[in-house]
Design brief:
heterodimer; A: 144 residues; alpha+beta; 4 helices; B: 139 residues; six-stranded mixed sheet; 5 helices; 32% helix; globular
Chain lengths: 144, 139
């Protein structure tokens, strides 16, 4: 039983890894259906900006800017992807290198939260950010 | 989003909620041991400031706090405003909005929030934080 659980968890983690890699590939190729294929209708996304995005319609619109006035081929490539999967809840973190959009090259940090519903893994949360330097967080005397 | 709704014991959701509330209170109190207590050795933290690729391991995580405590002691606040937990039996995540500002900044920008996502694992019956992602809403 213990062994079966471990196999299941390993297989869920591999499945989620593929799901995230395929989602990133869908973004790179402008495949709208692929981008939205495994997302919850009530998803909550911490984006930058417009900051906090609730539900799939709003989420869908956030990708518009990606394909408006591109500077070159769009790429959205994850690295250092770490997946932690349980029986019905999972989270993943990775770095993303994004290029080709009107925003120019960008390195993001991404965290994804997932739930398994009716046997299928669904993304219910995404948190995208870039680091920000706020003066008040710097140790005294730090040059910036 | 409740654990009850997904058939997991309610106590896991409550336990995680209390863990995160205790952690935030320890941050506000500049209590380093309290901040580290429920964190795993292999934690990955995406902090507000660089490094861009994240802070990896408990020692590096520990090192991020002293400069932040210095700012808190000068009048900063670190308070959970809203928190949602999604808990399974052995893996969970949570997202929260926090007031992380001085009173002066909050008066100018009342909607400014720190956005926090946390990933947790249950090991030997105990929930531990394995991942944190912090970033600010933009003005």
């Amino acid at each position: 039983m213990e062994m079966d659980n471990r196999h299941q968890v390993a297989s869920d983690a591999a499945h989620i890894r593929t799901l995230i890699e395929n989602w990133a590939r869908a973004i790179s190729s402008g495949d709208w259906r692929g981008i939205l294929a495994h997302h919850s209708p009530s998803l909550l996304m911490f984006d930058f900006p417009p900051n906090i995005v609730r539900n799939l319609d709003e989420y869908n619109k956030t990708w518009d800017f990606f394909y408006e006035s591109p500077k070159g081929p769009i790429s959205f490539v994850p690295s250092e992807l770490q997946v932690t999967a349980g029986a019905d809840v999972a989270f993943a973190s990775c770095l993303i290198h994004c290029d080709g959009t009107s925003a120019g090259p960008l390195d993001l940090r991404l965290t994804v939260g997932l739930r398994k519903l009716d046997g299928e893994w669904i993304i219910t949360h995404e948190h995208h950010s870039v680091p920000t330097i706020e003066e008040r967080f710097l140790p005294p005397g730090t040059k910036h | 989003m409740t654990a009850k709704g997904m058939g997991a014991p309610l106590s896991d959701e409550l336990e995680i909620r209390q863990l995160l509330e205790r952690w935030a209170a320890a941050v506000q109190a500049c209590d380093e041991e309290g901040v580290l207590r429920d964190h795993s050795d292999d934690i990955i933290m995406f902090d507000v400031p660089p490094p861009e690729k994240g802070v990896r391991g408990i020692q590096a995580y520990r090192d991020t706090w002293p400069p932040f405590f210095k700012w808190l002691r000068q009048g900063g606040m670190f308070e959970i405003d809203s928190l949602e937990v999604t808990a399974g039996n052995d893996v969970a995540f949570a997202h929260a909005l926090l007031r992380c500002s001085t009173m002066e900044t909050l008066q100018k920008h009342p909607d400014k929030r720190l956005r926090l996502t946390v990933g947790l694992r249950k090991t030997d019956g105990r929930w531990t934080v394995a991942h944190e992602h912090h970033s600010f809403t933009q003005q």
